[in-house]
Amino acid sequence: MTPRVKALLQLALLRRSWERAAPSDPGLAEVTGTVERVWRSPAHPALLVAEPRYAWQFKLMYGALAPAGLTDGPHRTALAEVTAGGFLTPGRKSPFLHLETRFYADLAGVGHRLHSYRRLYEASRLARHRDGQPVGEPDVCDVTHTLFHLSDFGFRDPGLTGDALEHARDLVCRLTGDCVRNGDWDLTAKLVLAQHCLGLDPLGTPSGEAGLRLLGEVQSPGGAVPGRSAADRADTTATTAEFFRKAYQATLVTALTALTVAHGRRGGAPDAGPPDGARTAGGSAGPPAADHATGRDRAPATRGAR
């Protein structure tokens, strides 16, 4: 995959959360303008298929993350291709890919035959992890993205209750502390956001506060995080292109985390969306609430990030 394609999809995801959390923020207009220009470009879809193994997923994300004002254009064609291509069926997808596909299919408002959120959670590494088992970097990404998709990146209750909720909170907080100590900036940002997705206030947990402090310390005056980790940071002699390749991932994830922690869930309950199984022909307001939710009170709003 090209860094440009992945960075633009992540920017579109950031824009979506930004619009929901702080719609009056003056900085939002510039980001929205950038995303709209790219999404209108007839040349952009060709970049999504440059790496064939990611082509279907990138097309789906591209269609799902189009700003609301874009009712037609290349992204609609991409969604039609994804639907016609049979990607929106279980197939041989891993639980991780299956859940991500379900999330973006619901966000795009397209019909599918994918499994329920309950079933996908139960198949996830998060649900199957047991205390004492080692957790590597791929597992951290699996755990955090599972929570992102169940909770719509912190804007709805993920539907975990009782022991499952306590297990997830304990695991995520312990992993946050480990990643802070290891200088894993990208993973730290994801885990701090995952704490928020679980209804925790990252500023009220030792690991969350340490994670936010670490990310603030490594950011440049312009907000860039110079790499995914301290061990993989961009060299001071790096060209602009080299720095971008090193920095874009952690920078965008940190921005998403800071934005959501500072503004997420303010002013009301998280989005609920349509019940599982409901589909709309023209697009939905958002993915449905996790169908394994059992009525736990909505998580409280967090305080603004310092």
Describe, in plain words, how this protein is organized in 3D.
- This protein is mostly helical and 306 residues long.
- The chain has 13 helices and no strands.
- Helix 11 (185-197) packs across helix 12 (206-218).
- The longest helix has 24 residues, at 240-263.
- The radius of gyration is 18 Å and the shape is globular.
- The two termini are 35 Å apart.
- Residues 266-275 and 277-306 have low confidence and may be disordered.
Number of helices: 13
Give the mean pLDDT. Answer: 87
Mass-distribution shape: globular
Number of beta-strand segments: 0
Q: Main β-sheet, in a few words?
A: none
The span between the termini is 35 Å
Low-pLDDT stretches are 266-275, 277-306
Helical residues, percent: 40-55%
Oligomer: single chain
Report strand %: under 5%
Give the SSE order as H and E letters. HHHHHHHHHHHHH
Secondary structure class reads mainly alpha
Rg from alpha-carbon coordinates: 18 Å
